[in-house]
Amino acid sequence: RVEKRDAEAIAHLGYKYYYGKLGLTKDVSRAIELWTEAAELGSVNAHSELGHTYYCGDGAEEDKPRGIHHWQQAAMGGDTGSRNNLGYDEYKNGNYELAVQHWMISAKMGDEDSLNRIKGMFMEGLATKAQYAEALKDYQTSLEETKSPQREEAKMIRWK
After folding, report:
1. pTM for the whole thing?
2. CA gap 23, 35 in Å, rounded
């Protein structure tokens, strides 16, 4: 699938190079090249990985604006982890309202960490009770929407 320029296959190969799996020698530079190619082809996962890589300087020179750009692309594609990271960056920079907005979106998509961050902000007096209540309601709705008899059965089998 990589030869056919499948974005997710290319991103997956990038992970294998990043971690040195499948008999491949760990090669972070190659992973970044593959993630960049996959991101250009529309891979949300590749944007998320590039966001982390550049924001944290993990395998590449730290470049927070570049990392944020990739997280924004991934967040617009529905990646809750990237949305959560954007919220953290805004929080860290004192932009509490923007942080809450990011976390409200990802909590609504079922991201528990974002819900807990809003709760923490509420406890610090940086988010309102109404914002926390809305995030909690939206988070619970998201969980309900993803329930299915098949998933419940799978949980039961897993815990036996």
Report:
1. 0.86
2. 19
CA angle 85, 90, 92 (to 5 degrees): 90
First-residue to last-residue Cα distance in the chain: 37
Q: How far apart (Å, rounded) are the C-alpha atoms in residues 116 and 109?
A: 14
User: Do residues 60 and 52 touch, judged by C-beta distance below 8 A?
Assistant: no
Tell me the three-class secondary structure of 91-112, residue by residue.
HHCCCHHHHHHHHHHHHHCCCH
Residue where the block lists tokens 């998320």: 48
98, 128 in Cβ contact below 8 A?
no
Residue 160 has pLDDT above 70, yes or no: no
SS3 category, 20: coil
